Automatic annotation (TrEMBL):
Assigned protein family: Belongs to the SURF1 family.
Coiled coil region boundaries: none
Name of the protein in its database record: SURF1-like protein
Topological category with respect to the lipid bilayer: Multi-pass membrane protein
Compartments (UniProt record): Cell membrane; Membrane
Membrane-crossing residue ranges in chain numbering: 220-240
Keywords attached to this entry: Cell membrane, Membrane, Transmembrane, Transmembrane helix
Alphabetical list of PROSITE patterns matching this protein: SURF1 (PS50895)
Length: 265
């Protein structure tokens, strides 16, 4: 009754089913692993964002690499902006996906060390993308700024290629070691994305976004979906086998009746 399972068509179908089941199970576990990773990352960022601001010198120093736990920590710093050595970071977009620049201004602390401050996004208001834009001035004199501590940018992490031969005072990536060489000063590792004080006239546009808002639930749903698919494969195989057996049995009965029928006169 089930000898048809030894046919070439059914052998191939059975082998495909046997390959699909463990593959889908593994994909489900991979999605669950992604869910756990994203959930942990969201929690880590949320804890950092809601932590009480601390002086930036407690978390970073010249040559320091900002760790995963320190990223997005709210920090404060007191000093003065050095606009004479200000640079812009090319090919950055705002919330509307408009291409422009980030404004990176050295912030000189009381002990002479420098903190890199990303003051926000401005449009490319020059005649070309290579023209140096007009930058709104920061507050003058000694002030206290607050921001999110961020690690140095790399091509591997951002996907942005660090181009050489750029126009004067334009860079592709924010890197404290490179800026230390340019400024000839001790620069704290990483940089901060300024959150306060807010700029006058809303420019530069502060960098917001929703860090810690990765859709981890979507990976959880995908994991359940893959496991349901893996369970559906053997069920579907059994349904097909039973239908094939039923169709073959019906065909055999019809053939027997045809052979048993009297020959026409």
């Amino acid at each position: 009754m089930y000898r048809f399972l030894l046919s070439r068509q059914w052998v191939i179908l059975t082998l495909v089913a046997l390959v699909l089941i463990p593959t889908m199970i593994r994909l489900g576990f991979w999605q669950m692993h992604r869910y756990e990773e994203r959930s942990a990352r969201n929690q880590l960022v949320s804890d950092a964002l809601h932590a009480k601001p601390v002086p930036v010198e407690r978390l970073t120093s010249p040559g320091h690499t900002v760790t995963r736990d320190q990223r997005y920590r709210a920090v404060t710093a007191t000093g003065t902006f050095d606009t004479a050595h200000e640079v812009v970071v090319r090919r950055r977009v705002n919330s509307d996906e408009t291409v422009g620049f980030h404004v990176l201004t050295p912030f000189v602390l009381a002990d002479g060390r420098v903190l890199l401050v990303n003051r926000g996004w401005i449009p490319a208001n020059g005649p070309t993308q290579t023209a140096f834009p007009k930058i709104p001035a920061p507050p003058a004199g000694k002030i206290t700024v607050t921001g999110r501590l961020m690690p140095d940018e790399t091509t591997a992490a951002s996907g942005i290629k660090d181009l050489k031969g750029l126009p004067d005072r334009q860079i592709m990536l924010i890197n404290s070691e490179e800026q230390a060489k340019r400024l000839g000063a001790e620069v704290l590792g990483g940089y901060i994305a300024q959150s306060a004080p807010e700029p006058k006239g809303d420019s530069p546009e502060l960098i917001g976004g929703n860090p810690g808002d990765e859709d981890a639930a979507l990976n959880y749903a995908y994991a359940i979906q893959w496991w349901l698919f893996s369970a559906a494969v053997p069920v579907g195989w059994v349904v097909l086998v039973r239908r094939e057996r039923r169709d073959r049995a019906a065909a055999a009965v019809a053939q027997e009746r045809k052979e048993a029928a009297p020959a026409p006169v």
